[in-house]
Every structure is written in structure tokens, then in C-alpha cells.
Write a structure and sequence with these properties.
Radius of gyration: 16 Å
CATH topology: Rossmann fold
Largest sheet: 7 strands, mixed
Structural class: alpha/beta
Number of domains: 1
Low-confidence stretches: none
Distance between the termini: 33 Å
Helix content: 25-40%
Shape: globular
CATH superfamily: NagB/RpiA/CoA transferase-like
Strand content: 25-35%
CATH architecture: 3-Layer(aba) Sandwich
């Protein structure tokens, strides 16, 4: 199964990389609009999101919107020694973040403000490819799957993806964590809210 996941990861990273920049920007706007319209997000007191890089669905405008509107927001900091993610409260997008070892924006050591994973109501999760049931294949390091095992059972998990990153079904294993919703430029897949 790992070989199949590796092949799918490579294939969908390549497909995602072929999306024209203008098309990706338009899709990002539509995804953001759908995400912000979700009642589960409006009710959330604390939201954690990845900070996009490379050709991921953009979350930077979402982060800035949350900060400007008084929503408590956390971003991940990768601890590469323990192979875990630390949720850190973000207060100032420009000052709190720098490019970390994985080339991703993450908190500076002096702006790290850890939040218990169980205090987060909604998790915005990246992925390389998702299926219609909510299973995902990420970059293969397992950081998110390990982290998501520590969150509150009531927490909502939302994957962001371009429509071409959503397939009928994916292989998954016992340690994989399923998303509750997937938001694409065509709308929201998942349970009714």
C-alpha cells in the first residue's frame, strides 16, 4: 500500500504543479469564499490552519481574515526531532512567522505560543490528494496524522484541495485520519452542517 500511496503522491503533486497561476488564484478565491461561509467555522472559537507554500491551496488570506476579525488562530510548528506538530497561536502574520527548515512559514522560537490540540475547534488540513469520503494522502511524513490523533473528538477537520485533487477512493491505513469536509473551488464535500 505504501508504494501505491507514493505513486499517487507523485502523480497528484505533478498535477497540482501544472495548474496555471491565474487559475489557481481564482480557485483559491472560490475556496476561501466557501470556507468562510461554513457555519462550523463561524461557531469556532479557535481555528488551526496550515500556512500554504509551494502550490498548496492558499491559506494566507484566510489567516489574515481570521486575525482581522478577532478569530483565535493557530498555525503548526514542526518539531523535526520528535516528529510532531506543535499548535502555536498566531497574533501577527508579518512578525510571528519565518521560513522554517521545511521551507514553510512557521513561528519564530520567540513567538511560539503553544495551544493544547484539544482547545482547537476546527483544523484546516493540507493534502496532496483526497477522496470523496475524506481520506487524504499528505506528503508522507505523518506529522498531521499523528497530530490529529491528539485533538478533541468534537473538533472538525477540513481539507482544502483543488477539484483535480479529489478522487473517488484512496487507500488508507489504521493510522490515517479522515476529514469531515473537503472544500474545493466547486464547493463543500462532507456532512451537512
Amino acid at each position: 500500500m505504501q508504494l501505491k500511496k507514493r505513486e499517487l503522491r507523485k502523480q497528484y503533486l505533478q498535477l497540482r504543479g501544472q495548474i496555471a497561476e491565474e487559475s489557481a488564484r481564482e480557485s483559491d478565491r472560490r475556496i476561501l469564499k466557501s470556507l468562510l461561509a461554513m457555519p462550523v467555522l463561524a461557531r469556532a472559537r479557535c481555528v488551526m490552519t496550515y500556512v500554504s507554500y509551494d502550490r498548496e491551496v492558499d491559506t494566507i488570506e484566510f489567516v489574515k481574515f481570521c486575525l482581522a476579525n478577532g478569530k483565535r488562530i493557530a498555525v503548526p510548528k514542526a518539531d523535526s526531532i520528535r516528529k510532531v506538530l506543535i499548535a502555536s497561536e498566531l497574533q501577527d502574520f508579518e512578525r510571528d512567522l519565518h521560513v522554517g527548515p521545511f521551507k514553510v512559514l512557521e513561528p519564530w522560537p520567540q513567538t511560539l505560543r503553544p495551544i493544547e490540540p484539544t482547545a482547537i475547534d476546527v483544523h484546516i488540513v493540507p493534502g496532496v490528494v483526497f477522496d470523496e469520503q475524506g481520506w487524504r494522502i499528505g506528503l508522507g511524513l505523518g506529522y498531521y496524522d499523528r497530530f490529529l490523533k491528539t485533538i478533541a473528538p468534537s473538533a472538525v477537520k477540513i481539507g482544502l484541495a483543488y477539484e483535480l485533487q479529489v478522487v473517488k477512493t484512496l487507500p488508507h491505513e489504521p493510522w490515517d485520519v479522515c476529514m469531515d469536509y473537503i472544500v474545493t473551488e466547486n464547493g463543500v464535500l462532507g456532512s451537512a452542517d
